[in-house]
Amino acid sequence: MRAKLSYAVTAAVLVFYFVLVGSRGVMLIQSGTLLTVTFGLAVLILPVIGVWFLWKNTQFVRRANALAAELDAEGGLPVDELKRTAGGRVDRDSADEVFARRKTETEAAPDDWRTWFRLAVAYHDARDTPRARKAMQRAIRLHDGKPAQVA
Asked: Which of 88, 113, 22 lies closest to 105 in space, CA to CA?
């Protein structure tokens, strides 16, 4: 719940920022000189890109959460079996061990979105966020019945 609240607050702040920047871009365009119109159009590009990025990221999070809920209903969510340091951080060797098992599981069933979901969790636990995201994107595509893109 804390993560959802944090995401909602961050998204709200970003939307406020996009509106603020967008209004400044419109004000520059309304000035009417060639320089301010050009600059105003350039300023408007930032909120457009930001809104697109926020939308795509929100879609990704919603789809990943839907997969987690479905996998949880099936009883297939990965169990947290990681060892932790005294400070609460995941032990790297433990994460690598679980990752190796998840990778083998995924190689044995490359068309199963469930294995890709669990691999994404293992990547995340191993602190490899880019690969975790790609694995989750692949799980989403497989779940939706779309062909998996090879990266």
From this structure: 113
